[in-house]
């Protein structure tokens, strides 16, 4: 009994220590965002004793282009979420339900694309965009599928596989077409998985940096993550504004995770179980 209590206590202490290590950077970024630039660069930067707190960094952000970058991120992430979720639904349904040659190979290829480093593909994508005149535009949402589509397909394959085939067969016997059955029966039943894949796609597109930095070089088309990296002068980085912008950019994804955490967990776990 004593060993069991000691083990549980040790486990709780380890979990508590782990949480402190994980949450401390977020806490320090929040504190730094309210400190004047002079204190951040001073010798007492790592001490809170006698620290001054101000909203000056947030006031400067309102006068910068960061909110235009937030608008671009919202539009691009929304477009990416809509079309990737739709394509992933069609692709995952085909893999889960239809029998065709090289189905397993196709699944492996889709999942393997998520393992390619972005640095390998960003060059060819940039050349194609320059040729088509698509740089500095919302067309950047197209290559975002390279990052988000494999995960969405993986989640939805599990969900479509879990839906009983008898439901489709019954609908087809009643005269429903494959397309009609897919949209009116299969998609509603797979709603938890679709919802989960949409959220994961949105977060992935919202946090993307390298493609946006390469393809949307004009200040008017920068996304939020890239906009933060340009909060600097000729010889210094404005860490107060950077941390303030980081807090603002994190808020949308944080709200999504807090509001829909049950749906996210349910969407991931329910598709992973077979009855």
Shape: globular
Instruction: Please report the total strand number as a whole number.
Output: 0
- Indicate the radius of gyration in whole angstroms: 23 Å
The first-to-last residue Cα distance is: 37 Å
Give the CATH superfamily: MetI-like
| SSE string | HHHHHHHHHHHHHH
Total domain count: 1
This entry's quaternary arrangement is single chain
**Biggest sheet record:** none
Give the strand content.
under 5%
Q: What structural class should be given to the helix and strand makeup?
A: mainly alpha
Low-confidence region ranges: none
Write the CATH architecture name.
Answer: Orthogonal Bundle
Average pLDDT: 85
Helical content class? over 70%
Key traits:
275 residues, mainly alpha, MetI-like fold, 14 helices, 0% strand
Structure description:
The chain has 275 residues and is mainly α. Helix content is 72%, strand content 0%. It has one domain: Orthogonal Bundle (MetI-like fold), CATH 1.10.3720. It has helices spanning 2-32, 37-40, 56-62, 66-97, 103-113, 118-132, 145-162, 165-173, 178-189, 191-207, 210-215, 224-229, 239-259, 261-270. The radius of gyration is 23 Å and the shape is globular. The mean pLDDT is 85.
Helix-strand blueprint:
Layout: H1 2-32, H2 37-40, H3 56-62, H4 66-97, H5 103-113, H6 118-132, H7 145-162, H8 165-173, H9 178-189, H10 191-207, H11 210-215, H12 224-229, H13 239-259, H14 261-270
Helix pairs in contact: 3-13, 4-7, 4-10, 5-7, 7-10, 8-9, 10-14
């Amino acid at each position: 009994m004593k060993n069991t209590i000691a083990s549980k206590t040790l486990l709780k202490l380890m979990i508590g220590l782990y949480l402190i290590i994980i949450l401390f950077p977020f806490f320090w970024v929040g504190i730094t965002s309210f400190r004047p630039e002079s204190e951040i660069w001073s010798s007492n930067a790592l001490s809170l004793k006698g620290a001054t707190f101000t909203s000056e960094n947030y006031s400067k952000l309102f006068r910068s282009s960061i909110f235009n970058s937030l608008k671009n991120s919202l539009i691009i992430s929304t477009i990416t979420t809509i079309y990737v979720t739709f394509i992933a639904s069609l692709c995952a349904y085909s893999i889960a339900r239809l029998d065709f040659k090289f189905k397993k190979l196709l699944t492996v290829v889709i999942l393997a694309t998520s393992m390619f480093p972005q640095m390998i593909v960003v060059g060819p994508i940039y050349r194609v965009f320059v040729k088509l005149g698509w740089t500095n535009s919302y067309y950047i949402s197209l290559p975002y599928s390279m990052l988000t589509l494999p995960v969405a397909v993986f989640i939805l394959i599990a969900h479509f596989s879990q839906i009983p085939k008898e439901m489709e067969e019954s609908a087809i016997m009643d005269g429903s077409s494959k397309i009609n059955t897919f949209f009116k029966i299969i998609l509603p039943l797979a709603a938890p998985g679709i919802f989960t894949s949409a959220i994961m796609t949105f977060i992935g597109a919202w946090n993307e940096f390298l493609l946006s930095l390469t393809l949307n070089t004009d200040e008017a088309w920068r996304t939020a993550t890239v906009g933060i990296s340009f909060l600097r002068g000729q010889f210094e980085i404005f860490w107060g504004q950077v941390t303030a912008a980081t807090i603002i950019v994190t808020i949308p994804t944080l709200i999504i995770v807090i509001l829909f955490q049950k749906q996210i967990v349910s969407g991931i776990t329910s598709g992973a179980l077979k009855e």
